[in-house]
């Protein structure tokens, strides 16, 4: 019975009905939804459907402005940076959109712990503090014990002042028992993309393989939450099914978790289907163009203002720049999506899971973010302070999170400059953070930050609120 209830939360006919009804929304209806969104009182499914169906250019512009305002009010200027780490490309699944699917023949690899440590030292020398650990599903070649051992290696490997302070983990849907093991290994967010909420498409995309069980995949976060993992990160792969359907699927999934466990998605990632080895895009009729993609990002921002939004280097620098305005709060930098890819990148040998569009180094991305008025952040404070799950959400919803995010961003970018920047960059960042400190709303926070700045310059590290 319990199992049946879980399965009922995504109802294809219901979602389709919402989208059909919303097609006849008038300009007045749209105006009312935008007003409601501005008050941040939460939008009903039918309201989100109205935004998804709207086409009027003027009202679209209004929506973008609103998304930008929400983004600015809640997240301020900070953009959190991270990198993915691929440790194994063994996979028993046959996801038709992925270069690692089991039928694709290439020499597969699982990193040894010595290899992992080597990758970590490279990532640390790039300044990274936060990783997303990625691997294919293979209970024999990459079982949960391997993941746990890898996490231990990551956390204990240091390179001068470099250390990884938070590892978010993206492993296949699994059991409560295995999620408990992940929780005990101190993961940050547990990430799992539904890929598509549309069941017939899901089954078509995952033929004859473990991952093909839609219900098991859909209820993975329920099991993770039962194992007391309270930060979960969701996403769909845009391009598989109708994107408007996917947005409503995401929203309904989020509400299901909020209702049942008191907290919904910590983050939503927005990957778009990209070419990969052995995968052609000709057979995907739902590819999302740039304009639609921007609209989807803005709607997610408006619908779930307190859920972080993540973009990867699948997107070009230009597209990432635009999306930062409408909702993205975290982005990867200097990524490699091949196993052992950081070491092999220079040699051009690695097989990436998908093609990357933004191939710039972290420092280039950081320089551009600063030029555009953002504060690049390597902050990992919340989960280390116990601010996870509903504790995090209540802080975010009260608006008080900004009092820690911004100074933490300032401390971490200063730490980065001191450890990895040349003299000119150090001066530039110190000037920036001092100016930012002058504009902090609360004087007590400003004083704490200024003390931290001196401590950082005297060699202390890892200072956060
Ligand atoms: Fe395997 Fe993941 Fe690729 Fe599917 S998407 S084939 S599960 S690595
Ligand atoms: Fe993220 Fe928390 Fe740091 Fe803010 S303070 S950037 S929410 S980890």
TrEMBL record:
InterPro entries: Aldolase_TIM, BATS_dom, FeFe-hyd_mat_HydG, rSAM, rSAM_sf, ThiH/NoCL/HydG-like
Record has Lyase as a keyword: yes
Domain Biotin and thiamin synthesis-associated: 269-376
Keyword DNA-binding found: no
UniProt cross-references to SMART domains, sorted A to Z: BATS (SM00876)
GO molecular function: 2-iminoacetate synthase activity; 4 iron, 4 sulfur cluster binding; metal ion binding
Keywords from the named record: 4Fe-4S, Iron, Iron-sulfur, Lyase, Metal-binding, S-adenosyl-L-methionine
Name of the gene: thiH_2
Cofactor(s) the protein needs: [4Fe-4S] cluster
EC code(s) of this entry: 4.1.99.19
First-tier enzyme category under EC: lyase
Protein name: 2-iminoacetate synthase
